[in-house]
């Protein structure tokens, strides 16, 4: 399936987590806020580049993105979240009727992008094997605040066979624009996570014998900041339900000589 075909399916009403869709093409997180909050978001992302790597920013009111000419950010994701004063108001599959003239949208890198490299190397991804959304957790690591925006880092977790962890670190580390290397490996208590079977977002994913939990910074972090900072209005993707761009994953891989 091409990115354009995937976006057309979502626009037609298909709702599904996007991990494994349009393999080889970059996916992004979405956060759209009123213009008077846009600088706070941009500064928050600049100060917290690992969980919030910005790949594109729209003009106020625009639903177009340079990452996929002709696409519509208000219609081409499978699931959206609508936020009012930091509270989740609703989840819908189309926000074109809610998009405001002053909204500025940020496309933020997604860890699904480096999954292509993990799969190519033969590293198993348990959430795909189990047909589930990836597990995501709010951590005890506070992001660096920016203006009115503050909140904790969110991470995604993938159980990785112990003998493949170093390889997974190297593959993801070569892609800093889509979160890069893990922020933690092993005991979830080191991130303040009490129970891996109860993720804050996504689905619980079962580890196989010999697997180690590996945690990457996650683009759902801005949603945790919305809950903490309570802007009057915002639109985001639903966790795991990403925007699929026309950009190749390989475009975000840093050449070996440049590392």
From TrEMBL:
Per the record's keyword annotation, is Lyase included, yes or no? yes
Identify the InterPro entries for this entry. Answer: D-Glu_cyclase (IPR009906), Putative_hydro-lyase (IPR038021), UPF0317 (IPR016938)
Q: What is its EC number?
A: 4.2.1.-
Keyword set for this entry? Lyase
Q: Which Pfam families match?
A: D-Glu_cyclase
Q: Which SUPFAM superfamilies match?
A: PSTPO5379-like (SSF160920)
Family to which this protein belongs: Belongs to the D-glutamate cyclase family.
Q: Which NCBIfam families match?
A: PRK05463.1 (NF003969)
- Its name, as the record gives it, is Putative hydro-lyase GCM10022380_75240
The organism's lineage is:
Bacteria, Bacillati, Actinomycetota, Actinomycetes, Pseudonocardiales
């Amino acid at each position: 399936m091409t990115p354009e075909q995937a976006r057309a399916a979502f626009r037609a009403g298909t709702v599904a987590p996007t991990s494994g869709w349009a393999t080889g093409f970059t996916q992004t997180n979405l956060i759209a806020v009123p213009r008077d909050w846009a600088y706070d978001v941009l500064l928050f992302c600049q100060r917290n580049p690992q969980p919030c790597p910005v790949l594109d920013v729209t003009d106020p009111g625009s639903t177009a993105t340079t990452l996929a000419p002709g696409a519509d950010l208000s219609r081409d994701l499978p699931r959206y979240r609508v936020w009012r004063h930091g509270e989740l108001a609703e989840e819908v599959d189309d926000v074109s009727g809610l998009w405001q003239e002053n909204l500025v949208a940020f496309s933020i890198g997604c860890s699904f992008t480096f999954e292509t490299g993990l799969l190519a190397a033969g590293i198993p991804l348990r959430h795909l094997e189990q047909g589930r959304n990836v597990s995501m957790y709010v951590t005890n690591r506070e992001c660096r605040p920016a203006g009115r925006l503050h909140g904790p880092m969110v991470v995604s977790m993938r159980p990785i066979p112990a003998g493949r962890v170093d390889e997974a670190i190297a593959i993801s580390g070569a892609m800093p624009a889509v979160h890069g290397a893990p922020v933690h490996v092993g005991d979830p208590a080191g991130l303040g996570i009490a129970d891996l079977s109860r993720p804050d977002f996504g689905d619980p994913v079962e580890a196989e014998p010999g697997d180690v939990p590996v945690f990457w910074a996650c683009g759902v972090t801005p949603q945790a900041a919305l809950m903490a900072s309570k802007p009057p209005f915002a639109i985001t993707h639903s966790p795991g339900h990403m925007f699929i761009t026309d950009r190749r994953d390989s475009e975000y891989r840093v050449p070996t000589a440049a590392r």
